[in-house]
Design goal:
Low-confidence stretches: 1-10, 336-342
Strand content: under 5%
Shape: globular
Structural class: mainly alpha
Mean pLDDT: 89
Order of helices and strands: HHHHHHHHHHHHHHHH
Number of helices: 16
Number of strands: 0
Helix content: 55-70%
Radius of gyration: 20 Å
Oligomer: single chain
Length: 342
Amino acid sequence: MQTEPMMPDHAIKLGAGRSALLWGLFFLICFGLGYPTLNRYDARKLGPDWQGYYNNVAGRDDPGDFPFNARVLVPSVARPFYLVARGRCGSWDPVWFGLLVANSLFAASAAYLLLRIGLRVLGDLPLALLACTLYLLNFVVGQLWLTGMVDSAEACLLLAVAWVLFADRWWLLPILGAVGGLAKQSFLPFATTFAAAWWLVAERPAKRYVRLVLVGALAATSTASLVLAQSAMAGHTAAPWTLASEWNSRSNYVLNLVHCFTDQQFWYAFVWLLPLGVWRLNRLPRPWVAASLVTGAVALVLGGYADLHGTVNRPFFTAVGPVLTLSAALLLAERKSKETSA
């Protein structure tokens, strides 16, 4: 796969003021997309994971919420906003308000990280903004992340891993691992796979073995924080493989994988993103593309393992959504340019 050289990080300088403005805009867009959760419906009726996150923010201890209540990062960020809003937000549900603020913080930060990566790779602000728009308008973001789930934190932290690798700051990986383990269990395999695949595909001068050690440290810190969070909520210490076995559907994994693609919910997110996003991947840095695709494959395998059906669109979008949206933006901008010149 051939790729154009990456633009230097200083090719376009946003500055603190414009960065704050764009991040604030992303936040308000996210808050608006998730507004219906505040008083138009009760998302707890959608499934036990929503109920678990709701109870976690509200401070209700229900053993039936495990393992969802062990994903503590988003609820922990949401709880102060819930406490401030309780009794002061009229018809809005204060718990959903806290979760919407927290998820908007993470989703806006994910979009901002994608913007910075887009600027670094392409050196084109309008193109990077188009990619951010496509990213935030995906079905997964508006209909799942911002309805009280916790995937926004995992996606934000995985994009942070990508940014750290782009910026050649591998020493930050263990810190991201410690935080990511508190976000969601799947961050451990996703982030480790992403960083390891990046290292394998990188040019030989970048393949320093100390970086591979840091990838191992990422896995170690993520495992440690995951086990601590799970043990605290379960009331006993459990090994990572024991925790993973709880998600085993114990059914035909190949058939489960087929279910992922035949479930219409999967295609709500990818019916346009896959056809538009694959054509310009060769214009993007090879390590990023390879790391994203391999991590996406891991997401699908785990989806078959747990028999997630169409809901595998959430982890799959976390893995491949950024690279596909930037590629789709490249394709759309080129077509518009051709039509204008004609």
